[in-house]
Specification:
Blueprint: H1 31-37, H2 51-56, H3 63-75, H4 82-89, H5 96-100, H6 107-121, H7 125-137, H8 142-156, H9 160-169, H10 175-183, E1 199-200, E2 208-213, H11 218-221, H12 223-235, E3 238-241, H13 251-256, H14 259-274, E4 283-286, H15 289-296, H16 298-301, H17 309-318, E5 319-321, H18 322-329, E6 340-344, H19 348-351, H20 358-366, E7 370-372, H21 388-391, H22 393-409, E8 414-417, H23 420-432, E9 438-441, H24 442-454
Parallel strand pairs: 2-3, 2-4, 4-5, 6-7, 6-8, 8-9
Antiparallel strand pairs: 1-3
């Protein structure tokens, strides 16, 4: 009589029972990305750091669960179904799991590779068209983006937004449209643009020449913050080089899976800064955490491009967040008092994507009158994640509520962050709660302090 026993069925959602065959990869992701994901040892240290897993407790909505879904699809043991795609789409790519991971799994790299494969093999024609319109015909073209910005700015200052909100409450238009309208950033009265000379000289003794990435959304929605960044750098002895031919960094395209558009924008930015003497620049400074993580990843993005691989590595090596740069070279500008009790929000792509956590706090500590009160779980995502709050509004709102509770518990009067997405998301939540707190970018606080010192 045979004593053999039958093995239990393999559950692709259970990382403890899913033992896949030798990889065939099925063309879903490349070998390099496959090697990155198989480093996961199922320890579970990532679970408590994942915003979606904390929200619903579902294994497929955890980092290791998503890795196993990608692995199973790549190895051909699981079809790329709508359910699988849904669990991957729920990911914010906040990369908190990378910080927690003892095996150094590059989760963001794997997720973007999977989304690229989904866009190439499963996306509907409508999705491909919208992606192409956004990331090939709009974001890489500053003039077109500015034209759209002017139209949006006109709309925002018209009676239409109030009409949309009333129509949504009456059930005349979809509620999601009203949510998207509330989430949209209020665009600046005057957009930021590079000066005709492309260089803003240092005030006082010149110490460095630095490049500045102005971004795609920052010039439209956060023009005052870009101007403040230039003033802060200039006041600290920097000639600020702002190439007018620079483009969007490509982060949104990468997150959406459009790797080709992201690579095209990366090449354009490398060309733009090389034309202004990349070698003579001390640093390429960025004031947006999501953009900074993307710029620092240009070496990986263009690793297979023989014409740009080495140049991309040289470019990425010079990229620094504005706080990272100022702490490294030292603040020389006089700082005046700013009397505020603030709490600091760690932007995901700054703390997890770039490992920058102490530097913003060090700068706040230099400002007379600032009282910093740490919030609970400051490194947890606020639910913005690029355009995640538009694409996944319900999950985004759940994550935001937890963040707002922690903000309110500090009794601070101001939330400081280093990423425009965080500021938009948190400020929207504060408004909807009827609170009188506001969110400000770190460089806006620094600029205020420098201005206060000059007026004494």
């Amino acid at each position: 009589m045979s004593t053999a026993t039958h093995a239990p069925p393999i559950d692709p959602y259970d990382p403890l029972t899913h033992v896949p065959p030798s990889p065939g990869l099925q063309g879903f992701i490349g070998e390099e990305d496959y090697e990155a994901l198989v480093k996961c040892v199922h320890c579970g240290l990532c679970l408590n750091e994942c915003p979606t897993y904390r929200a619903n407790g579902l294994e497929p909505d955890s980092p290791r669960g998503r890795l196993y879904l990608i692995r199973a699809v790549a190895e051909g043991t699981l079809p790329l179904s709508d359910e699988v795609e849904h669990h991957l789409d729920q990911c914010l790519v906040c990369r908190a799991c990378e910080t927690a991971c003892p095996s150094n799994v590059q989760f963001g790299q794997v997720m973007e590779a999977a989304r690229h494969a989904i866009l190439e093999t499963k996306a509907t024609p409508q999705r491909r068209l919208l992606t192409a319109l956004a990331f090939r015909h709009l974001f890489p073209h500053p003039r077109r983006l500015e034209l759209v910005g002017r139209l949006v700015r006109w709309y925002q200052r018209s009676p239409f937004p109030a009409l949309v909100q009333r129509a949504a409450r009456a059930g005349i238009v979809p509620r999601r449209l009203a949510v998207m309208e509330r989430m949209a950033p209020r665009l600046s009265d005057a957009f930021f643009s590079a000066p005709p000379t492309a260089v803003v000289p240092a005030t006082g003794p010149r110490r460095f020449a630095v490049g500045m990435v102005s971004g795609c959304i920052m010039p439209l929605a956060f023009a005052p913050t870009n101007h403040a960044t230039v003033r802060v750098l200039s006041a600290n002895g920097c000639d600020v080089v702002i190439p007018p031919t620079q483009r969007c960094c490509g982060a949104l395209a990468s997150h959406a899976g459009d790797e080709d558009s992201a690579a095209s924008m990366a090449r354009a930015n490398i060309d733009a800064f090389e034309a202004h003497g990349l070698d003579r620049l001390e640093s390429i400074v960025i004031n947006s955490a999501g953009c900074g993580a993307q710029l620092k990843g240009y070496g990986h993005l263009l690793r297979h491009d023989p014409a740009y691989a080495m140049r991309a590595q040289s470019f990425a090596a010079k990229v620094e967040d504005v706080a990272e740069f100022l702490v490294r070279v030292g603040v020389t500008a006089n700082l005046g008092p700013v009397h505020r009790t603030v709490t600091y929000q760690d932007a995901c792509h700054l703390v997890h994507g770039q490992g920058v956590r102490a530097q913003p706090r060090e700068l706040l500590a230099l400002i007379p009158g600032i009282s910093l009160v740490e919030m609970r779980d400051s490194t947890r995502c606020c639910g913005s994640a690029g355009i995640y709050n538009i694409l996944q509004p319900e999950m985004s709102a759940t994550i935001l509520e937890a963040k707002l509770d922690n903000v309110c518990a500090t009794a601070a009067t101001c939330v400081v962050a280093s990423n425009p997405g965080c500021l938009l998301q948190i400020n929207m939540g504060l408004r909807e709660r009827g609170l009188e707190l506001d969110g400000k970018h770190l460089v806006d606080i620094l600029d205020e302090s420098i201005t206060a010192a000059a007026s004494v």
